Amino acid sequence: SLQNFAASGVVVDGETNQPVPNVRLGLQKVLENNSSFIGSSALSNARGEFRLENITPGTYSLTMMPQPDSEIRIDPLRIEVVDQDVSGLNVRTLKGAALTGFVVLEGNQSKEAYARLAKLRLFASVRSGDGPSLGGGGRVATIGTDGSFRIGGLPAGTANFGLSSPSSGLQSGFMISRTE
Predict the structure, then answer these.
(1) Residue 123 pLDDT greater than 50, yes or no
(2) Which pLDDT score, from 0 to 100, does residue 135 have?
(3) 150 near 71, Cβ under 8 Å?
(4) Scanning 14, 71, 176, 180, which has its CA 20 to 30 A from the CA of 104?
(5) How many Å apart are CA 160 and CA 168, to the nearest integer?
(6) What HEC string does 93-113 produce?
(7) Full-model pTM
(8) What angle do CA 74, 79, 19 make, to 5 degrees?
(9) What is the pLDDT of residues 39-72, one digit of tens each?
(10) Residues contacting residue 82 through CB under 8 Å, at least 6 positions apart
(11) Contact 8, 52 (CB under 8 A)
């Protein structure tokens, strides 16, 4: 059986070097032609410290998990786990780009339809050229009752949008037919 290890470090503000609390980090296992998220994630504490556990040997990308209404992002950090814990990781936050706009409903544009839409989340994943999605798979934002949204913390690239919902019934009847 494979031995499990841990990866630990601190999240700091890239401009001030101050600790950043409440940043959810996750690991993405890097394979030859693709990558997949594993179940290990951690939340930075009040001192910006984090610890990811139960990591098997391999190559990983440490990413920031989507956080609604957040303006910060990190560049994915490559980690190599061989035969011992990895410590002293220094994760620096960056201010990301922001997208603002409106989700416009075709057909039924009643206040009730927009109120239902406001219970969903707008998801943006960013790709640079033909490369994979960057920065932990994307960012999420709330949708206002007027259809307005603001998604921050994005890296440079092309954004693709989707809708997500805390329960499957809420998303019924909504789909994105065109993005610009």
Answers:
(1) yes
(2) 46
(3) no
(4) 71
(5) 21
(6) EEECEEEEEECCCCCCCCHHH
(7) 0.71
(8) 40
(9) 688 999 999 999 999 999 999 999 888 776 778 8
(10) 57
(11) yes
Q: How many residues does the chain have?
A: 180
Label the pairing between strands 5-13 and 49-55: antiparallel
pLDDT tens sequence across 70-93: 788 898 899 999 999 999 999 999
pLDDT at site 55: 93
pLDDT of residue 16: 96
Ramachandran quadrant class, 37 (left: phi over 0; alpha: psi -120 to 50; beta: rest): beta
> C-alpha angle with apex 67: 166 to 39, nearest 5 degrees?
75
